[in-house]
Amino acid sequence: MHRYLCIFFMIAASCCAQTTTPASQNTAAVSFSAAVLQTSEAQKSLSDLQKKFASREAHLKALSSEVDSLKKELDTTGSKLSDAEKSMRVQSIEMKEKQLRREVEDYQNDSQTESRQDFQAVAAKLYAFLQEYAPQHGYTFVIERGSAENPVLWYAAENADITTPLVQAYNLKSSMTPPLAKPNSSPQKN
User: Fold this and answer.
1) In sequence order, which residues have a C-beta less than 8 Å from that of residue 117 and are 6 or more positions away?
2) Less packed terminus of the chain by CB within 10 Å, N or C?
3) With 70 as the cut, is the pLDDT of residue 185 above it?
4) Spatial separation of the C-alpha atoms in residues 24 and 83, rounded to whole Å
5) Do residues 164 and 30 touch, judged by C-beta distance below 8 A?
6) What is the mean pLDDT of residues 33-51?
7) Can you give the pLDDT at residue 177?
8) What whole-number distance in Å separates Cα of residue 109 and Cα of residue 103?
9) How many CB atoms lie under 10 A from the CB of residue 43?
10) Nearest to 169 by CA among 40, 25, 26
11) Are 52 and 181 in contact (CB under 8 A)?
């Protein structure tokens, strides 16, 4: 019986020794949101959105200027106007202000929704790329670093932050699109 106990303890000790030996782990940190915004794809998307909403921005600026102009005009000529005329101009200004507020809200909602959708699309692609990138570069863990304003990770050595190399590698990969296969119109000779 004593012999079996010794064998059992030897096996248990060797198992514990194997499981408690730490594996070599390489940890990296990434500012994921910043990385998404730094990609060429996100930069292009942002530029496209700015172009798309430029005419609405110009319209809103013009409407705002019109409201300001009407207010100034009322301030300077208000004392010379009849009560009925003054009341009509005040109503007109209030209607323009209400229209401006509605259009600004619509603009903000539309632009925020589209920019959020574009961000999420690029983030999903970068996340998938990170799943390939990390093991290829020997990382066991990749931790969110956060931003300077809202850090998640309080300290990481500079060489542990892979945000820039990750963005560079993603941009390189995303700029390489496979060429389209050309239809072969003539049969090949063997």
Assistant:
1) none
2) C
3) no
4) 84
5) no
6) 95
7) 52
8) 10
9) 13
10) 40
11) no
Please state, in angstroms and rounded to a whole number, the distance separating the CA atoms of residues 121 and 42.
9
Cβ-based neighbours of 170, under 8 Å, separated by 6 or more = 35, 39, 125, 126, 129, 133
How far is residue 141's CA from residue 160's CA, in Å, rounded to a whole number? 11
Of 109, 119, 124, which Cα lies nearest the Cα of 46?
A: 119
**Residue in the block written with tokens 């998307």:** 45
**And the tokens for 157?**
């050595």
Q: Is 35 helix (H, G, I), strand (E, B) or coil?
A: helix
Which of 52, 42, 11 minimizes the C-alpha distance to 118? 42
pLDDT range class, residue 175, cuts 50, 70, 90: confident
pLDDT of residue 135: 92
Rg (CA), the chain: 32
Please, what is the Cα angle at 71 between 68 and 73, to 5 degrees?
110
pLDDT tens across 79-113, in order? 888 889 989 989 999 999 999 999 999 999 999 99
Per DSSP (E only), the strands in the chain are 27-30, 141-144
**Residue at 11: amino acid letter:** I
Helices and strands, counts by H and E, the chain: 5, 2
CB 35, CB 126: distance < 8 Å: yes
CB neighbours (10 Å) of residue 31? 23
Q: Give the whole-angstrom CA distance, residue 21 versus residue 28.
A: 21
